[in-house]
Predict the 3D structure of the following.
Amino acid sequence: MDKQVSEAMNARNRTNIKVPIYLDYQATTPMDQRVLDRMLPYFIEKFGNPHSRSHAYGWEAEEAVETARAEVAAIIGADPREVIFTSGATESNNLAIKGVAHFFKDRKNHVVTVSTEHKCVLDSCRHLEQEGFAVTYLPVGTNGLIDLDVLKAAITDQTSIVSVMAVNNEIGVIQPIAEIGAICRERGVFFHTDAAQAVGKIPLDVEAMKIDLMSISGHKIYGPKGVGALFVRRRKPRVRLEALFNGGGQERGMRSGTLPTPLCVGIGAACAIAKAEMPTEAERIRRLGDRLLTGIRAELPEVFLNGDVERRIPGNLNLSFAYVEGESLLMGIKDIAVSSGSACTSASLEPSYVLRAIGVGEELAHTSIRFGIGRFTTESEIDFAVKTIREHVARLRSMSPLWEMAQEGIDIKSIKWNEH
Amino acid sequence: MAYSGKVVDHYENPRNVGALDKGDDNVGTGLVGAPACGDVMKLQIKVGVDGLIEDAKFKTFGCGSAIASSSLVTEWIKGKTLDEAAAIKNTQIAEELALPPVKIHCSVLAEDAIKAAIADYKKKNNA
Ligand SMILES: Cc1ncc(COP(=O)(O)O)c(C=O)c1O
């Protein structure tokens, strides 16, 4: 049945393209049909409270939750007892960073993170600063990666936790996680990584990489929204943290609240599928990413890939189209669902802080679009996207005064602009 | 972001895109905005012997509202005297295109572009 469904879907995708084409897999992913199939029984039939100990309803729910916990643990090389379910990576990040900082506050008052982290990490750190903690925000190079020597120099005997994301959500670069893990272990500080964009895309092993805490999100890996997980190391070294909320003491006291059985089953199923299919899926997405980039560049000059060319996941391509403003391009390519690198669409008119941090000039940052390729992207969708992008970039360039100046050999930086 | 029908129309079918000869004394060129702010407009006018604007062209780097604002004003200023064109207010542009508050700056830029083109023409002609 599963197979029939997915074959039918693939056949439909091959023949007729549904617009807008979804190329925003970093924002969220559709659920995999196989994930939903596993979740469904746990809404009505097997609705028990997994914490009920006195009857079969509770036991079957508990069993499902524990199977899911083992599936989540397996994809990162952890022990199931080290996995805590949360509402998503936002909560996992809050719990990891604030939880550890608060637990050790009498002895240590310093946290290290990176300027290009997800907003929920940065905001948790800002909150800690308001409470009196010191936070170091590591810079990144133009490739988006941190400098390990700068990290070493930032760690002090006051540092309780270092938080560095595995894969960046905006530009897709992969931080040197194993190297960071080794440094943190040697210096005796906990290492947390936000792996929301990394799980299922790159191999992760909490032992080999010496990771102490790791955040995972359900809806980035073809699982449901509203569920996530936090890996919390139990031994060598044992991580201690203060819970965010008070309650029944579920999840080893770190996260009170009745577990949402269907959602836990969903993130577990998503991890199991991702683990089994990662090698073939990664290769397929790499080919699609190459096809997109080569296709676009075959006809359009001055298209820049933001972030390291090599150390990246292939399914995230953040491109700057020089001389074309991002929002106007989005308006033109409305048959493709993508995100703009400039936050113009969110009314702030500010280019993204990640692009700024990697030194993309403001004029180029305004021209950036993130293309996210995923499990259900097809070759014909990529070809359609390439054609659409070529057309609209060419049209907008033909009406761009900056493009005209560039063609006339005028250096745009030599002009005295009236910044407003 | 939802755009008004008029913005979409100007974006999809921009009026008077192009360039006039900068070297021509009858042509005034205005270049306003800044790449770093995400919008730059170039507006050109050609003034006839009768003192009326006989042609107008634009090129714009900016969002759909910026493109629409500049496209719209090229339509409006054709056939007008320089004083009439200079009297166009950004509020009229914003109202015509139903621009939301965050896009008002696009209409301001279009008004500035008209003024800059007129100033350039007057400078060339010592008027
Ligand atoms: C890197 C990263 N961290 C955290 C999150 C937040 O995840 P969630 O939506 O599960 O709270 C996201 C998704 O927006 C993300 O991309």
User: Anything to note?
Assistant: Chain A touches chain B through 31 residues (CB under 8 Å).
